Amino acid sequence: MKKKILGLHYAIRGIVICSKTERNMKIHLFFALTVLVYAYYRDLVLWKWALLIMTISLVLITEMINTAVESAVDLCTLDDHPLAQKAKDVAAGAVLLAALNAIIMGMVIFFI
Ligand SMILES: Nc1ncnc2c1ncn2[C@@H]1O[C@H](COP(=O)(O)OP(=O)(O)OP(=O)(O)O)[C@@H](O)[C@H]1O
Questions:
Q1: Does ligand 1 have an atom closer than 6 angstroms to the CB of 99?
Q2: Among 8, 39, 81, 111, which has the highest number of CB atoms less than 10 A from its own CB?
Q3: So where does this one cross the membrane (predicted)?
Q4: What is the pTM of this model?
């Protein structure tokens, strides 16, 4: 039980560290909060709220995984290496896909 609580503590610490240290994460959080406030005043139906929460989560989760990949790669090597480049580019690509998805979902949620 204590181990599980400790695991949760580390996970929350991961979210806090990423939010405090990563510029992109701060930008995502700012937009997420803005959209959530806007959605509150638009009085969305339940399925649109679900879609909005999933969309925002996807962006934040991919940004956190991207940060983890960048940190792990930098820990392995600070030299230029094609595999380091591949790992970072693929992780960044995942964030880009999530962001593009968020734009499309935003249009579906707020304009349809
Ligand atoms: N060790 C490396 N070897 C080869 N290419 C690298 C290496 N480190 C970074 N790169 C290239 O530079 C790009 C930017 O890497 P960087 O670590 O600066 O991340 P970033 O995209 O600036 O992220 P952030 O702004 O979140 O720090 C990578 O996507 C990759 O193409």
A1: no
A2: 39
A3: 47-69, 90-111
A4: 0.92
